[in-house]
Design a protein that fits this description.
Layout (H helix, E strand, L loop, with lengths): L1 H16 L22 E18 L10 H16 L3 E11 L4 E18 L2 H12 L2
Antiparallel strand pairs: 1-3, 2-3
Length: 135
């Protein structure tokens, strides 16, 4: 009998001794913020026309192969970087392929460089609104 009382007492101590305590001390406060942006205008100087071509084979050891968009964007970035321009304007692409054979991607465009960064004037904002409206 003493054995059963001892086991009962031991199990009660074990059950009541493991108590989970949850306490939260976090608090939040609403912070009012305002972000004001003023548009920036710039002049775009259009340079010479450039063209670059890359070729690759369908059967390569590189899996997965980059998508067409990835190849095109990388080629545009390479043209802009190698010519020291800021953007490529009026981009045109030409893609040819032979089934299970050679692929060729050609990108053509005009080099563009930004000059004369300034705070946008009322005339700049009105011109932007006009272009956006008639797009």
């Amino acid at each position: 009998m003493k054995k059963y009382i001892f086991l009962l007492l031991l199990s009660l101590i074990t059950v009541t001794g493991c108590k989970t305590v949850k306490k939260s001390t976090a608090s939040t406060e609403c912070i009012q913020t305002e972000i004001s942006q003023y548009p920036t205008a710039t002049d775009l100087v259009i340079g010479e026309k450039v063209e670059k071509t890359i070729s690759w084979n369908f059967w390569t050891l590189q899996f997965p192969q980059p998508s067409f968009e990835t190849r095109k964007n990388n080629l545009i970035a390479d043209i802009v970087k190698s010519n020291g321009a800021d953007v490529l304007v009026d981009v045109q692409t030409s893609f040819t392929k032979v089934m299970f054979g050679k692929r060729t991607l050609t990108v053509t465009g005009y080099l563009g460089t930004f000059k004369n960064f300034r705070k946008a004037s009322i005339e700049d904002i009105e011109a932007y609104k006009y272009v956006k409206k008639n797009k």
